[in-house]
Write a structure and sequence with these properties.
By secondary structure, the protein is α+β, with helices and mostly antiparallel strands. Helices cover about 35% and strands about 25% of the residues. It binds zinc ion. Zinc ion binds next to helix 4.
Amino acid sequence: MYFNRGKYFFKQIFFEMPNNILLSQQLIQIPSYSGVNKEVIEFLKNYLEKLNFTCDIVEFSSSDSYPVNNLHAIYNPNNSSESLYFAGHTDVVKEGDLERWTYPPFAGKIVDDKLYGRGASDMKCAIACFINAVEIFLKTNPKPNFAIGFLITNDEENDGINGTKKMLEWLKNKGQKITYCLVGEPTNPNQFGEMIKIGRRGSISFKLTVHGKQGHVAYPQKALNPITILINILKLLKDHKFDNGNEFFDASNLEITHISSPNSGSNVIPNSAYCEFNIRFNNIHSSKSIAELIEYVCQKTVGLDGKYQLIHRVSGEAFLNSPKKLATIVSKALKEVTNLDPELSTSGGTSDARFIKDYCSEVVEIGLVNETAHKIDEFANINEINQLSEVYLKILKSL
Ligand SMILES: [Zn+2]
């Protein structure tokens, strides 16, 4: 452990790298669940103001959610036609069962070259890395020909109502344009440098109730079994090939998540049956076209005798940011630092990139390894934190 930390300090001294690890620890040490968290947002504001950023803490509230503090910070805004933004979130998910953590979740303890703590992977270290990269960059490039911005929310992990989405409108109303945007979500499944994200699948969830006619199992001709109808619908949908995927997307997929029936006896055909399912779909479809298809299958299968009720909720549309200048720069920087050729992927869950894509010309997600995100004993490798700082610095230098 001492040897490894020694190597790290060696690097600090000889390459004049400000302490990105210390900054990561400081952020982890401020517990910041989704919502109003002035402490973590003010900490970042104070830090960035020392680097001559103009900062605003923007609080949004609404009747349908809790209030949230967000931070906007901008360097060199008037002098530039282009801007590079870093978007991220300071909020973390709950630590869960404290007893199961090997080290306290908000201590930011370093053991065997790993920095432990809630938010290490997702995504406080990435925020620290970008600040660190900017700090080094501005020392030799105090007047870059592009503006540098931070868009930091404290509400990505929860409902996100008063977070990034509203900040983007706020920026638009101010006339502040985002040209390129990096999102610091942890993008790598196993190893730093293997994957960046240039889009995401869409997600739509369905709740289906089929109404039949209750009766005795011995006299099925006098009843209408809703479970049979439900199974037929689900079989058709599960067997349906939505598509074969394309260059950047896997094939769309349906997963059944729940089946039940309020039945009281083994000799009773029940009155209704209920199921839930979710479809992760690629950019060949929209949530509307998927919903229409499901409705059609239900109508046809239920037939004239039966009734059904179908409701759906869209979590996000599929999107693809065709890789352009920023994706090329990010891939090259990763290759130089890690010697890996990153996959340009659209896999995984949703992120705030789905909102940001509508406000900029290119958004790319590049962060640490997501293996321990949201888990007990979340950590980030010190070596990979340093690599991420280097990658961000190379991106700033290449723009
Ligand atoms: Zn995250």
